[in-house]
Amino acid sequence: MIDAPVLVLAEGELRRHETFGPHTVNRGAVLFECTWEGGIFESGVMVGGLFRSGTFRGGVFWGGVWMGGTWSIGDWENGFGPDGRYHPRTVHP
Amino acid sequence: MKVVIASAHRFPDHARLWFRLLGRDLLPALRRTGAKVEVLLFRDATPEGFEQRHFPGATLLTRSFEALDVVEFREKALERPGDILFLLDADVFVLDGEWVASLLGHFEDATVAGVSLLRRGTLPGVFALMARRAAYRALQAPVLAPAFEGLERWPRSTKRQAGDRAALALRARGKRIVDVPLAATAARLVDFSGATAIRTAREVYGAVLGPRFDTLLVEEPDFAAGAYENILLGALFRVVFGAAYAVARGPLPFTAPDSDAHLSGSATPEELRAALATIRDRKALAPLVASFERSDRALTRLATLEGLTRRALHVPPVLPRARVLEARARAAASRLFGKR
Fold it and tell me: Residue A86 and residue B71: Cβ atoms within 8 Å?
């Protein structure tokens, strides 16, 4: 049996400086400087912040740090890899 | 001496105005010094709308595998043959070209690696930076890219903005970056630092946020400042070019701009006015009023370059006059009596 997500972030939502754990799914929210830890990012925009783990399956990654996780599909606008180096548009880690 | 001016632009209308003002004053002034001048304009968007006829003499570059974005464009610009690379942000307008040209004299000192005309952070940055190409090219690539240091200390890691690491490395080599004091630049440069940012934000996540986007005008002072800067630039653009400004781009790149959609890609005066009307905290409003007044003065100077007066631009008011007067009175009292 698969655990149901306990938190679904939806279009029209804006979150700032929050941490989202493994039972989170983003379906359109905009996250400013948030930490993503283990959930599924289906759509929406991650502006700054830290992607520590989880799956990026759609949406826009903009200026954040990618520490780990699975990049499946999405728009990598720009950001930084786990070594702190800059990754330009489309060049996701 | 050859000077290469490099600037990245996301919005063709903004770039057109920027380039026109550059050509009015700075380019002739640099050429009068005997310098050869080349302008590299990076189209950080789909190239439609950036028509060569609007940028006479400039080299228009497009996103490619060699330069996927503005950060890579700066690295490419460093490779362009020349003595001085003049990085100029899209939101920075030069009012006094003669003065800027005179700054080239600093490079007679061999220890000078750069001249920074404007800084927005603790280090010189790349917003208006004259860089001695040879000195910067001697650094490890990527020379000007931003980076994070100490990510293991997150969130207490250090973010180095574009140009920061180069500035530190040059200092370690005994080189200098001349920092032009703010007092010297205030009347000679215009820094509409939020103008492009709010349009980019509107384009990237405005649609998914919907009406929530407008609340950012209240919550984020930089958004309100950027929105106002675009209202001013839009007023100038309309008079100079007779067209709408900052029109929200549709899903199709070839969609004709809708003249009724003036400023829809930023914030319309009505949207900004409605947002500001919800600010009840007088202390929160005062810095915005001050910021708007600085931008107003900057616009007046830009208009003068075009032989226009501010009155001719018909800038729509966004703040109730009574609240502006109140904020001014409070600011004056604060200056006189140290009250907050």
Answer: yes
Residue A66 has which token pair? 């990618």
Burial B306-336 (b: 16+ CB within 10 A, else e): bebebeebebeebbeeebbeebeebeeeeee
Cis omega (within 30 of 0) for bond into B142: yes
Of B145, B146, B204, the CB nearest to A60: B204
The residue type of B262 is: H
Contact residues on chain A for B42, CB-CB shorter than 8 A: none
pLDDT at B284: 84
DSSP character at residue B202: I
Q: B338 is written with which tokens? A: 């140290």
Place of tokens 């009347």: B187
What's the pTM value of the predicted model, to 2 decimals?
Answer: 0.92
Q: What per-residue confidence (pLDDT) applies to B253?
A: 46
DSSP helix/strand/coil, B100:
helix
Higher pLDDT, A4 or B129: B129
| 8 Å CB contact of A13 and B151 | no
Q: Which residues of A touch B72 (CB under 8 A)?
A: 88
Q: Report how far residue B41's alpha carbon sits from residue B9's, in angstroms, rounded to the nearest whole number.
A: 7
Any bridge partners for residue A43, and if so which?
A: A27
The runs of H, that is alpha helices, within B43-122 are 70-79, 97-102
Min distance A8 CA to chain B CA atoms (Å)? 15
Distance CA B133, CA B137 (A): 6
Nearest-neighbour CA in chain A from B84: distance (Å):
25
Per-residue pLDDT tens over the stretch B124-149: 999 999 999 999 999 999 999 999 99
Q: What is the per-residue pLDDT across B21-70, written as a single tens digit (0 to 9) for each?
A: 999 999 999 999 999 999 999 999 988 899 999 999 999 999 999 999 99
CA separation (Å) from B256 to B89, B196, B197, B260?
Answer: 27, 21, 23, 12
Indicate the residue of A44, A62, A89 with minimum beta-carbon distance to B208.
A44
Question: Is the CB of B148 less than 8 angstroms away from the CB of A60?
Answer: no
Chain B residues closer than 8 Å to A88 by CB: 68-69, 71-72
Interface mutation vs chain A, best among B158, B208, B217, most A CBs within 10 Å: B208
